[in-house]
């Protein structure tokens, strides 16, 4: 009988996991989520992301990004309907951010970054190319993702591969076992609930906390993409500008505010975000001398990144709180959550490990069933 797999969570991590599982014919796959592509809710992080490929991992934990980059690049080059395009990217660095330990994503701004070998056109910027107030910079071709388009495309690819999608609200992860569209109990549950893992019964990862991100979406066009190592407006405020593919507008960011659950945009922060963006990228508003009044605002956004101080959790375990008396009868769970701000750029690498772990779970289940079968004389 075909194995049954239920993926809980329909953000970029859950959908990518479901898609890769379907591509290897792992079994009958059901995606269950409270929120789906097309929804905008503070609980649903994926639509709010920028999103681009901006290496943030340390060299010792760079598998996720190294494995994801080739696929995002391929999609940008060969699958325009996915909503990803290639774009030059400039990263500017201030020495004081590095020395003070204030930089949120230190590896991205390392003086000699591990990722420079990933990009054929990587180069260090000349002194005349550095924006005021910064000490150095680099440039390479990366990608920017129109999240509204890409999530719908990803969902469509899942449906094309036979994945069934259902809406449901879970209070405990064990409830997912009975939600397969096949009507059979799930053999494996994949937990891709992001920040929801903090409160979901059966997980309740108390280490999970939001990294609040406030951004402004504008109609103005701006290339190249820009990120800086810090700002003078406080440790929680950062600067990035990226133009989404397919008319998706330009995202101006932002904040990285740990522990802040506030869902409403702060108008004062919004003004600072826009001011920093215009100062760093005057061409955003048609050149120097024009201010934020020249920005055409689509909307103000707030998203909660699923931050986990110990890093992403991708591992398997038995759901020990399940109702069976025997631990061996409890369902397998494969976790894939805690990606903070790099869910898109690590999505395929993380999903590949999910596929490996689900395979191990199904193998162990089959082996246990073989061992427990009646022995003939």
TrEMBL record:
Its cofactor is FAD. GO terms for biological process: D-amino acid catabolic process. Signal peptide: none annotated. D-dopa binds at residues 240, 305, 341. The keyword RNA-binding does not apply. GO terms for cellular component: cytoplasm. Residues 5-357 form the FAD dependent oxidoreductase domain. FAD binds at residue 193. SUPFAM superfamilies: FAD-linked reductases, C-terminal domain, Nucleotide-binding domain. Belongs to the DAMOX/DASOX family. This is FAD dependent oxidoreductase domain-containing protein. It comes from Purpureocillium lilacinum.
